[in-house]
């Protein structure tokens, strides 16, 4: 059920089964991307709507030519620089990729993850793995095996335990739906600064509402069960005494944070703690959750984006 046996995980995947896999961003719920029945069982286990496409995970660039029909220059630059890593490229799909994986779109999301266990797993398979985050649809993503167990036990065949996900927020998604116009669809583990340093200015189309360019990016997503409110640190004193689970950031001058994402104000550390903090807040006896915005730089943008979606609705 849960373990560190990569060969057992590979054997199950070869039989069309579901395996939760560790990645550097969050845990994924994986199945053979080229086997429609297996892919269907991902949607079932997650209660995920079919309009929300899945990311296909590879371990070698050699796999790309089978799955896609073009590889624009700027996409190549990003892949060279940030793969393996927390970056998903949306590219034109080949006929090999089932429509179920892409929700009928002509484009497919591809990512080469950096976690060594999952790289080894992929190298044992002659097919890529379709994997959304391993959480029930709409809830906070899992960053360790226990998070996956808590919610999906009984629905999946094996959880490959690779420890804590070091990045802690999902991959950055860059679409090449138009080859010469890269567009960021989701903030994530690779920052805007890193992307623009590599390929120049890119547009950003982060969904609000339910626009079809990245169908899964609903306003309300990554949501906690409890109500979450976002505040500026400067407003803290007025709201500190309410029955809130307080998720803070930086030196705690108020001694009232229930969880500090990073005492030393390190945004990378904060990102790696974020989803655990949200889960702890949900499990606490507090009535609701209060989280503070962080700076909109580097991975801070992804943190603020996830907080905003958790707070929406
Ligand atoms: O870090 C990650 O990306 C993690 C790990 C497991 O790799 N995966 C992940 O998957 O976050 P998921 O399913 O929770 O989010 C993937 C999102 C979809 O909701 C959708 O917005 C976008 O990626 N996506 C996937 N394929 C797409 C496509 N063909 N066109 C547009 N957006 C796509
Ligand atoms: Mg997800």
Describe the structure.
The chain is built from eleven helices and 15 strands. By secondary structure, the protein is an alpha/beta fold. The mean pLDDT is 93. An eleven-stranded mixed sheet has the order 1-8-2-3-7-4-6-5-9-10-11, sandwiched between helices. Strands 12-15-13-14 form a four-stranded parallel sheet, with helices on one face. Residues 23, 25-26, 28, 52-55, 86, 88, 90, 102, 105, 107-109, 111, 113, 131-133, 170-171, 173, 185, 214-217 line the site of threonylcarbamoyladenylate.
Mean pLDDT: 93
Small molecules (ligands, ions, cofactors) in the structure: threonylcarbamoyladenylate, magnesium ion
How many helices? The count is: 11
Low-pLDDT segments: none
| DSSP, total strands | 15
Inertia-based shape: globular
Structural class: alpha/beta
What does the oligomeric state look like here?
Answer: single chain
Helix percent reads 25-40%
Beta-strand percent range? 15-25%
Strand order of the largest sheet: 1-8-2-3-7-4-6-5-9-10-11
Radius of gyration: 19 Å
Largest sheet data: 11 strands, mixed
End-to-end Cα distance, whole Å, is: 35 Å
Order of helices and strands: EHEEHEHHEHEHEHEEEHEEHEEHEH
């Amino acid at each position: 059920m849960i373990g560190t046996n990569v060969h057992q995980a590979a054997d199950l995947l070869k039989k069309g089964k579901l395996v939760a896999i560790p990645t550097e961003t969050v845990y994924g719920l994986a199945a053979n991307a080229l086997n429609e029945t297996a892919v269907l069982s991902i949607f079932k286990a997650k209660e995920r709507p079919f309009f929300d496409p899945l990311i296909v995970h590879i371990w070698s660039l050699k796999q790309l030519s089978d799955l896609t029909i073009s590889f624009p220059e700027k996409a190549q630059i990003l892949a060279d620089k940030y793969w393996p890593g927390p970056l998903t490229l949306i590219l034109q799909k080949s006929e090999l990729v089932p429509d179920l994986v892409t929700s009928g779109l002509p484009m497919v999301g591809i990512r080469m993850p950096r976690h060594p266990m999952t790289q080894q797993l992929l190298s044992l398979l002659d097919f890529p793995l379709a994997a959304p985050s391993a959480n029930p649809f709409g809830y906070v993503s899992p960053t360790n095996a226990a998070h996956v167990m808590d919610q999906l036990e009984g629905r999946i065949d094996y959880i490959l335990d690779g420890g804590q996900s070091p990045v802690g927020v999902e991959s950055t998604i860059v679409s090449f739906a138009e080859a010469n116009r890269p567009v960021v669809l989701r903030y994530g583990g690779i920052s805007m600064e890193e992307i623009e340093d590599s390929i120049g200015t890119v547009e950003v189309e982060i969904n609000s509402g339910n626009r079809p360019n990245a169908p899964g990016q609903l306003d309300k997503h990554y949501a906690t069960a409890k109500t979450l409110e976002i505040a500026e640190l400067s407003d803290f004193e007025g709201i500190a005494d309410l029955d809130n689970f307080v998720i803070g950031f930086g030196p705690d001058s108020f001694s009232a944070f229930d969880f500090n994402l990073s005492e030393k104000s390190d945004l990378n550390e904060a990102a790696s703690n974020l989803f655990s903090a949200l889960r702890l807040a949900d499990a606490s006896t507090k009535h609701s959750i209060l989280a503070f915005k962080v700076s909109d730089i580097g991975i801070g943008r992804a943190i603020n984006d996830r907080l905003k979606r958790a707070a929406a609705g």
